[in-house]
Amino acid sequence: xxxxxxxxxxxxxxxxxxxxxxxxxxxxxxxxxxxxxxxxxxxxxxxxxxxxxxxxxxxxxxxxxxxxxxxxxxxxxxxxxxxxxxxxxxxxxxxxxxxxxxxxxxxxxxxxxxxxxxxxxxxxxxxxxxxxxxxxxxxxxxxxxxxxxxxxxxxxxxxxxxxxxxxxxxxx
Length: 172
Description:
Blueprint: H1 4-7, H2 10-23, H3 26-34, H4 43-65, H5 72-98, H6 104-121, H7 128-140, H8 146-169
Helix pairs in contact: 2-4, 2-5, 4-5, 4-6, 4-7, 4-8, 6-7, 7-8
């Protein structure tokens, strides 16, 4: 009898791996542990935004690194569908806890649009992280805090590097 793992296509496996990477919080915890106490920022907000940045950076990376791949759209659709399903449960749970409706997926879409707009405004930036870091810090509440700028930049750089390495090793 075949295992369900054996029946998955390369794209389905990639979606699963990338989604699992997206919801893994170890890198968020590491970055938070290295965020100096001197950072003039609400730490809870930074942690919240780091996870958002990671999720959307993975989606951005799929689109960017698979630009000329026939399976790009299929992988993007599967990834964002998994994220949407995941965020629905978070939204429901959080909504019940605070007594307010929250659409976490809509928040992800708004942040992605915000980062894309920031990058579009600075097309001459040497690399996206130069734009992402300050925009991340602004979103967290203090665009002048160098520690927060660096934390956002590190998350973005590490995430896209991991996705790039992963996509280069798999066969789609």
